[in-house]
């Protein structure tokens, strides 16, 4: 029997992430306790950590040292409120509650407000790395009550992944809901990264007729260069896998409808709310929604015409163009994600460090990539960079890749291969670098039908024209 008040930290929710985070903490010498509604999970946790698994939150809290530290890894939304409601009367000023789930940042903001005056220190921490990362070292993005940081810093930094320079991929992000906002943007970028990789795969398959095993080699090769990243690496692995039943590539027997839990959608909604241009992130969400209407697509395929061209092109040359296009689209997606962070920073006065955030994503998380070190350096050169695209390093990379992105988008369009994220990345790039856009005509249209007024290039003020004589 454990003595009372002997545990350093307690996990609430011992599912995919919670149990592995608990094992990670246990492996780092911390005394971890855990609770889940399901008895089976409590027992699994107890047998794997050797700790007793309390049968109630009351028992769980009673076993913690003070100040008590609780890490919630329950599904986002109502379960977090339910746990907090039960926990609140059990806690004292100075106790710390960390929500490590994929919580919508506005919910974290609300909970912080609700806890104001209670003395309970609340932290919204984005955690990324999936099941494996939780066990071996995730990226952790905590934000909220800064008074909690000195107590939880050694705990969270101990279990976090480490970048190549040895820095832990866990650092204080900022006040309020900034930790969960940063995780939401991470996931928005994750959606775009995944979709552009899928489009690269689809173009190689549809235009070049490459087999899964051949594409696996291509992705493995790409993973040794500028595109080196967790997602490109797992793509090479996935494409090499054989289905034991059909004996063909496993990827070929997987249904082409993507699911989603909502973080990419939230990132896109927030981009619209804050007036940030993030089309590649949004198109990655829409690519999932159109994939979900599979029977409608099958019916439309028999009705809607497409191009009749057959593809001609030299294979190695096209593969290299797709590689460059993928790099260009990836940079555009990251640029959009960082624009979203910058807008939130202005809106909520969080004083975010974009370089530090890029540093947190260098290891442990799903979007970890070689590129993130370059992003970190870009913000070290200029913390107030207007857009990642105009950093001299990235402007140079885009110079080398933008033509390939155009060629690939043109190939996709001419041959009727859907590539929405590539296409929107190019449109984003061209719009952002356009000194002049057709919005002059748009303003005139608004003024025509709604007397909304327009500004003139040659003098200050707002003007209205009586368009209909
Ligand atoms: N899976 C992943 O790769 C990642 C997930 N996340 C986020 O982490 C959070 C947890 O995810 P994940 O571990 O995958 O989810 P799981 O569903 O695997 O685990 C959640 C656990 O919480 C339990 N639970 C629900 N309500 C309560 C409660 N009131 N008290 C105690 N336990 C409760 C659930 O029990 P029951 O099943 O009985 O409801 C379940 O065992 C989510 O917000 C998720 O979005 C973040 C990063 C990566
Ligand atoms: O947060 C994560 C990784 O960073 C999760 O894996 C997330 O749940 C994936 O999102 P979705 O289910 O919408 O694809």
UniProtKB/TrEMBL annotation:
Record Pfam families: 6PGD, NAD_binding_2
Binding site for substrate: 102, 128-130, 186-187, 191, 261, 288, 446, 452
EC numbers, comma separated: 1.1.1.44
Keywords of the record: Gluconate utilization, NADP, Oxidoreductase, Pentose shunt
GO-annotated biological processes: D-gluconate metabolic process; pentose-phosphate shunt
InterPro entries in the cross-refs: 6-PGluconate_DH-like_C_sf, 6PGD_dom2, 6PGDH_C, 6PGDH_Gnd/GntZ, 6PGDH_NADP-bd, 6PGdom_BS, NAD(P)-bd_dom_sf, Pgluconate_DH
Record's keyword annotation contains Oxidoreductase: yes
Domain 6-phosphogluconate dehydrogenase C-terminal span(s) in chain numbering: 179-468
Pathway: Carbohydrate degradation; pentose phosphate pathway; D-ribulose 5-phosphate from D-glucose 6-phosphate (oxidative stage): step 3/3
The protein's enzyme class: oxidoreductase
Residue positions of the active site: 183, 190
Keyword check for NADP: yes
A molecular function GO annotation: NADP binding
Top-level lineage group: Bacteria
Catalysed reactions listed for this entry: 6-phospho-D-gluconate + NADP(+) = D-ribulose 5-phosphate + CO2 + NADPH
Stored PANTHER family: 6-PHOSPHOGLUCONATE DEHYDROGENASE (PTHR11811)
Function comment: Catalyzes the oxidative decarboxylation of 6-phosphogluconate to ribulose 5-phosphate and CO(2), with concomitant reduction of NADP to NADPH.
Subunit organization: Homodimer.
Family that this chain belongs to: Belongs to the 6-phosphogluconate dehydrogenase family.
Entry protein name: 6-phosphogluconate dehydrogenase, decarboxylating
Gene this protein is translated from: gndA
